[in-house]
Amino acid sequence: SGFVLNTLYVQTADTLIRQPIIFDASIARMKSAYGFGFDASAWHPFTRALRAYEQSGWDAAYAFLLRYYEGFQPPTAAEALGATRSDTRLAEYPALSWVLPWSFRTPEQESAYRISVMRKETRHWHKTKHHAEFTGFKEFGPTSTSVLEMELGRLVSLYESIRKTGFKRELADDDVVLQIINDGQSETYLVQAGQHRVAAAAALGLDRVPARVLMFPVPVIRLSDAPMWPQVRTGIYTESAAIHYARDLVQKDGSHRAKTLRLL
After folding, report:
1. Which of these, 200, 205, 211, lies nearest to 161 by C-alpha position?
2. Residue 209: CB partners within 8 Å, gap ≥ 6?
3. CA 64 from centroid of its chain's CA atoms
4. Most CB atoms closer than 10 Å: which of 64, 145, 159, 220?
5. 3 state DSSP class of 125
6. How many CB atoms lie within 10 A of CB 127?
7. Measured at the alpha carbon of residue 188, what is the angle toward residues 136 and 38, in degrees to the nearest 5?
8. Of 144, 151, 193, 143, which is closest to residue 172 (Cα–Cα)?
9. pLDDT tens across 77-104, in order?
10. How far apart are CA 57 and CA 132, in angstroms?
């Protein structure tokens, strides 16, 4: 059954306090913004790379991720998200600038944020405080060999750690963070942080992982609220296009995109 969030608000004195919620989330309900699902019946490039690693080792996983990054090089934000309807303005923006209909950031802010995250993760991975150049994005190509090796290294490291010691939630900063999307009939969990951890857990056959609900702007994104979504109000999405994207996110599992990329 779906995770009901209608009781997340706690009245304390005269103040309504929005409480962070941690729960054991079903991996089968999780998706990336690109529509990729994580469990065995779905398709996600990170999970599939780890299954290649499990079966045939590092080189097989590397070859798979290389095929993915070479095959998925969307030129626009519309093609990155698969939101290619003519009634969005996403085709006007480069791939790295994609925004979700309910996002408060502008496309330019999203692009700058993703570049800063990649630089931070590169410094952390290489254990350096020096400036890191942006040489590609982790979620699609084109990207550099160094980014590919870093992403596979992160995946394999997490896979081996979870395999040996189990999935541990030790630091709040390392939480899997979800947004819950409700289309009126069912829910999906959009992974906003922690895709590597979810992919490793899924590859190892775990059904659930502890996750934190993203409480801003609201704990549940409901399709009935689409007229008020920020990027609908700015005109980047029409209401119809925004609902179509969200409904696809809930209903599809990534295999359709994998077939398009000739990876399935």
Report:
1. 200
2. 24, 25, 27, 167, 176, 197, 198, 201
3. 19
4. 159
5. helix
6. 6
7. 50
8. 193
9. 999 999 887 889 999 999 999 999 999 9
10. 29
**Cα 215 from chain centroid?**
16
CA distance 42 to 120: 30
Name beta bridge partners: 237: 88
- The answer for residues whose C-beta is within 8 angstroms of residue 97's C-beta and 6 or more apart is 77, 107, 108, 110, 111
- The two three-digit tokens of residue 1, written as one number: 């059954």
pLDDT (average), residues 223-241: 96
Peptide bond into 142 cis (omega under 30): yes
**What tokens were used for 91?**
């085709």
Joined together, the tokens standing for residue 109 give 């802010």
- Chain segment 59-68, per-residue pLDDT in tens: 999 999 999 9
Structure tokens at 246: 């969200």
Q: Is the dihedral of CA 106, 112, 114, 116 positive or negative?
A: negative
Tokens for 214, please give them.
């993203």
Alpha helices in the chain (DSSP H): 45-56, 58-71, 77-81, 107-125, 145-165, 195-203, 230-233, 239-251, 255-260
* Cα Rg of the chain, angstroms: 18
User: What gap in Å lies between CA 103 and CA 180, rounded to an integer?
Assistant: 14
Report the distance separating Cα 118 and Cα 132, nearest Å: 9
Which residue's structure tokens are 């209909």? 101
